[in-house]
């Protein structure tokens, strides 16, 4: 009777023991599965290494991509380089078939190679601006944005006659952090005074107002503007200055009427004492019998003789340039020819 009675405490211990045995069995089962998986993986790896093509999963061979040789080793000699570097880009070791090296040489060796070289990646390069690429860009601009050159303008003289004003500016190609260059806004305007519609008074006044901007040797007025932040503004300002100079030169102020010959900037031959003395001397020589030298004896003909024109040029050079040895020698020879000495 007592043997058939089950104590509640013993029943609980039995349940706990059963649960522990079940957990142990589950752990043992998982361990066997893990060991089997490791063995299967080792077998697959061995098969993969043997075949060299891929992994077989459930009877299907899965191919694995393998790294091939660099692109630089497969490039043709006559390839289109503009397709490799069409635009500005960092250095690509696999795309540049050149033995480029850069960096600090370790232990007196050679600089590091291009593969994995950060020094080559940090710096900018001009691999996209080869002569062939620049030529393609120019052809594209010529085809889309540029018109044909006029056939009538076949010489520099004709171009200067049709377009007397020359405007110069600079373009800069930058590879730094900023594409802006302060010198790109500077505009230089050049024009010859002989191409402008100026009389003697307006020409001299424009030269006086221009000061050092006028070059006497080339007869060129140069205006340089750089005070504005943009090139277009400097161009407009240069054209404005030229317009103001032109119109101001044609104005005649009241005080300019009081200007005498002694106030002139240069020596003038017309109506000068030298011209009058030469004319009087030639008239007296004609009265003495030298009628063969002058056909009509008029004032214009006397002053238009080659010897008189040579004397005029030497006198202007002597007065305006100064008494140099060369000018004095030419003046002496002109006087001797004038008086037939």
Structure description:
- The protein has 341 residues and is of the alpha+beta class.
- The chain folds into 3 domains: 72-148, no CATH class; 156-256, Double Stranded RNA Binding Domain, CATH 3.30.160; 266-338, no CATH class.
- The protein has 12 helices and 6 strands.
- The chain has helices spanning 8-51, 71-74, 81-84, 118-122, 131-145, 156-162, 200-210, 231-250, 273-287, 299-303, 306-321, 325-338, and strands at 54-57, 60-63, 166-168, 187-192, 214-215, 220-225.
- The strands form 2 sheets. A 4-stranded antiparallel β-sheet has the order 3-4-6-5.
- A hairpin with a 4-residue loop joins strand 5 (214-215) and strand 6.
- Helix 11 runs antiparallel to helix 12.
- The model is unreliable at 1-24, 26-51 and 288-296 (pLDDT under 50).
The name CATH uses for the topology of the largest domain is Double Stranded RNA Binding Domain
CATH class of the largest domain: Alpha Beta
The number of distinct β-strands equals: 6
Strand order of the largest sheet: 3-4-6-5
Largest sheet: 4 strands, antiparallel
Please tell me what the overall shape is. Answer: elongated
Q: Count the helices. How many? A: 12
Q: What class would the helix/strand composition place it in?
A: alpha+beta
Which series of helices and strands comes N to C?
HEEHHHHHEEHEEHHHHH
Low-pLDDT parts are 1-24, 26-51, 288-296
Number of domains: 3
Oligomeric grouping of the chains: single chain
């Amino acid at each position: 009777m007592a043997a058939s009675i089950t104590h509640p405490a013993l029943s609980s211990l039995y349940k706990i023991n059963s649960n522990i045995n079940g957990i142990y069995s589950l752990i043992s089962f998982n361990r066997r599965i893990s060991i089997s998986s490791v063995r299967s993986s080792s077998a697959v790896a061995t098969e993969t290494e043997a075949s060299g093509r891929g992994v077989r999963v459930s009877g299907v061979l899965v191919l694995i991509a393998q790294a091939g040789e660099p692109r630089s080793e497969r490039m043709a000699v006559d390839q289109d380089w503009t397709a490799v570097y069409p635009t500005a880009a960092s250095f690509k070791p696999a795309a540049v078939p050149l033995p480029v090296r850069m960096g600090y040489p370790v232990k007196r060796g050679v600089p590091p190679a291009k593969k994995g070289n950060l020094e080559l990646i940090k710096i900018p390069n001009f691999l996209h601006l080869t002569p062939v690429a620049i030529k393609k860009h120019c052809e594209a601009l010529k085809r889309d944005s540029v018109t044909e050159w006029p056939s009538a303008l076949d010489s520099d003289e004709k171009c200067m006659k049709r377009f007397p004003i020359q405007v110069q500016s600079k373009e800069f190609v930058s590879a730094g952090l900023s594409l802006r260059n302060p010198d790109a806004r500077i505009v230089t305007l050049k024009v010859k005074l002989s191409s402008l519609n100026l009389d003697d008074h307006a020409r001299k006044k424009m030269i006086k107002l221009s000061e050092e901007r006028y070059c006497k040797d080339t007869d060129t007025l140069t205006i340089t503007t750089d005070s504005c932040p943009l090139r277009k503004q400097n161009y407009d300002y240069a054209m404005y200055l030229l317009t103001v100079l032109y119109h101001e030169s044609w104005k005649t102020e009241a005080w300019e009427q009081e200007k005498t010959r002694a106030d002139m900037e240069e020596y003038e031959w017309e109506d000068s004492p030298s011209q009058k003395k030469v004319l009087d001397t030639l008239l007296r020589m004609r009265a003495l019998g030298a009628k063969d030298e002058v056909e009509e004896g008029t004032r214009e003909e006397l002053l238009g003789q080659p010897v008189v024109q040579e004397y005029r040029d030497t006198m202007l050079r002597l007065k305006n340039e100064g008494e140099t040895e060369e000018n004095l020698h030419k003046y002496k020879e002109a006087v001797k020819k004038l008086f037939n000495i």
